[in-house]
Amino acid sequence: MTGTLGAVIVDLNPLGWAQLARVQKQDDVFEKVLQHVLLYINAFLGLRYDNHLLVIAACPNQSHLLYPAEPQAAAEAASKPKPVNVYEEFHTANEQVASQLRAVFRQQQAQFRAAGGGDDDDAAATAARRAATSPTATAAEDAAHVAAHLGVAKTSATAATSAMASALSKALAYTNKVKVARPDMEIATRSLIISLTPDNPAEYVPLMNCIFAAQKMGHMLEVCKLHRGDTAFLEQAAHITGSNFIQVDDVSRLAQTLLQVFLPDQETRRWLVLPTKEDVDFRAACFCHKRIVSVGFVCSICLSIFCAPQKECIMCGTEYDISSLPASLES
Ligand SMILES: [Zn+2]
Ligand SMILES: [Zn+2]
Hints:
InterPro entries: TFIIH_Tfb4/GTF2H3, vWFA_dom_sf. Belongs to the TFB4 family. By secondary structure, this protein is α/β, with parallel strands linked by helices. About 45% of the residues lie in helices and about 15% in strands.
């Protein structure tokens, strides 16, 4: 048995949280989810003395490493008086993680409003009314509703998704740095992604690179999904790294899922019967239009994926004779 360096990647996309507030009919859903995540973090730190925590926020276009804090911020926090009857690491982690997550979340909301104006609460309430009148609305339509009422003319792929590849790269780079710096220390590593937004097909290649890097490192990529959008890439991440992918429909049960499914270490999981996702979505995104495709054409030289047969691979320049292909395949 070894300690674990566990990263928690929280998706802080304001659009994703506005949709979750609407679906769950709770305006303060962020605070509720935060309490469940803090409970998981305390349990994780309390499970073993040599468990270490990493918290990363995934936002539209960027990601932030929130915990451990920068040395200066950590020294400031250490100099503040602490309650004597609380385990110091719980107190520090709770204070820093909660305050940093709240700060970045508010900053993201402010940026989102500045980009389009509007008010979240009114937006969520109006979107809820509209969704109630159209029960067949898809997740994309929901996103468009919420975005429209958040004051943004239309949801761009970037605004509606988060920089998950960037967040995962940070988690993998940090854990690799710890492993390289302490080759004598045996430590397992893993990342738990709290997903609030669908996949961004433009991130297909960097995300798959992260997934294969994690697989090589033996780093589990676990996914706890709180929304209804498509997450083919994250499903593949959990499947390829031998980890769990769980959709939580009712956030009041989030703590239960986090503690039962995602808390046990790799060794303990061998003896547990945990829920698994049977139907993994193995679709890929084409390199030409960044669209998720069910049938793709693969360059036999560089393995790039295209949605239609190409005369010349746009990635490696290999030329192909596609005249022999049935006309129905050429678009
Ligand atoms: Zn394409
Ligand atoms: Zn090629």
